[in-house]
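Progress narrative, work stream C.
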Amino acid sequence: ACVAAEAIGMTAASSAAVMADRLGSAAALALVVVGGLIEGAALGWFQGGVLAQAFPALSRRLFGVATVAVAGLGWAAASAPAAFADGDTTDTPPLVAIAAMAAVLGVVMGLVLGAAQATTLRGAVAHPWRWIGASAAGWAPTMTVIFLGATAPDASWPVAAIIGTGLLTGVTAGAILGLVTGWFLPSLDGTSASGRLVLHLLAGSRAPGIARTVIGLEVTGRRSGRRMRFPVQYAVNGDRLVVVPGHPDNKTWWRNIGRSATQVGVLRQGAWSPATARLLVHGDSDYLPARLAYLRRWPRRVLPDTQPIIVVTAPGRDEQL
């Protein structure tokens, strides 16, 4: 979707820039703005379509409007100076400087665009504001490619070559944007991108040091029936693992674990295995031993007396085999 959007957008923008060279300032500015709006409209339509399929509660129309307002006009504003340049390239900055400036602009634009788009994601996903980071991460390399492609042609290039370069630039930039933001897409309604990366490392046993401090935990929502997977710190207390939900008032996953044994999944030693978990609260007979075991492992952690604690009983790797 991003490839299609940026191919259309960059072709329109490069065509507008070529035509602007032959017109007066006012008409040139109008063409550049139109080219930017086409780029924003294409991105909003194609990207919004994918997001609306993944999250049906999203308004594709509002997502498109937000994208046009920021991406379209922002791209038009960034393109305007180039459209009115006199074609003298003797003072063109080095490519490294252009790439660095483009990456910074991409981060800024990504933050603003992501914030605007995130407002339309509210109510459609559990974590709409994560899209801001996804947008900034995606637009930094994308804008770098766009600027390098836009500065490649000079006045001696034929029109077909300039437009063709715009198309190739759009395809390349769109692929990068789609790959980066696509990595973040599942995080809008599930585990964060960093959490998914930790789970990936745990599953592949690529980071033994992480496995000594973190396990993967799978909990099923009581009402939704949706499985949630995320990494958590743990301590060992005999044959059980002790997990403490950080900032429990702001998190809900632990509320799906009952005072009696609840089925969960545990990612440890490179594989997921079935396990049982139980919620402990202050006053339970097992509460203090579990709390002390956790504080011995994590002595800098401060646990209030009301801190809920989860104890997990999981089979060892040998038992699984």
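Work stream C, second folded protein:
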Amino acid sequence: IESHKRTFVKTISWRLTGSTATFLIAFLLIGNITIAGTIGIVQLVTNTILYYVHERLWNNIHWGRK
């Protein structure tokens, strides 16, 4: 079982990667840095919370562990 701190650090690391990709895709499609930034920030906050909760729930499931 991993600690809350480890889950949090993994969450931040993954979200920075994903949010950078989202921002770049939005900017390339829309061409507006403000709108792309807004999309990136909304996605960052929403997916950070969802990922953390997902990881903590799966941490309580023993299926597939040895």
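The chain has two helices and no strands. No further action is required on this item.
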